[in-house]
Amino acid sequence: MVKNIKLLSLMMAVFTLLSVQLSAQISKGTLVDGITAVIGNEIVLESDIEEQMNYAKQQGLSVSDRCEFLANIVNNKFLIYEAKRDTLIENRSAAIKEAAENKYEQILANFPDEKTMLNSYKFRTSYEMKNAIEKIDSDNYYGQQKYGRITDKVDVTPNEVTDFYNMYKHQLPMVKDEVSISQIVMYQQLTEAHKDDIKNRLRKMKQDIQSGKESFEQLARIYSEDTGSASNGGLYTNISKGRMVKPFEAAALNLQEGEISEPVETEYGYHLIQLVKKIGKNYDARHILLKAEPPTKKSQMLERN
User: Which residues cross the membrane (predicted)?
Assistant: First the structure.
């Protein structure tokens, strides 16, 4: 018990010293550009923080503010540094890299194409995203392994906990109150009337484009709910067969160049598709996506007005 408390105290003391040194570096303005912190031979880059925050958010995790997030990374990096020096912890770099490749493909399966996924996760290339996943998984593995080694066989009695608390209670941080709640959630169903409304909106856009009142690109920028292509006028280029979902691809390839489809339903909503050109087995196409979601009370009020 005493041995483990001393070890944890030593770790916290070293971590505090590192934090002081880091603060001193920042105040002197001597940090190497792009490097936020260095723990042993473990480096935390500015890009690491941004990539890990974006990835965590897209995975549905609660992300604290940037300072707290950085503190958690630095704290974990200390464990990682010690873990990699610990000969009793297995080096699983190859297995982690392979798992990161598989996780990348699993995430990609939830998107219509790779570009949409990369835009959603805010990565420029597939290499950047795979590398970020590998870093996160590697850090988690080594951090958990070292934490397990430190706390292994720690046997604490209730009396020892009470004695420790009484001795250090003035130094211990306050813990906020927490509550557990239960809830019942009911989601509004999409009606046939609202489906018809979405399709009629797309048909009206098609009429305006064909009559010359509007351009496909401009309507896509304003109305399309596909974040991966809206800012580019709805355009996807050099699309290979099998890249898009089947209803989208079938509709696009049945069009003549410049022709616009009727509303096409996919798992993402309803699309208005324009075939731009065919290039061998590949093609360029624009689309406007309206998601098939029930109208909110606010939107219903706006429609009535």
Answer: none
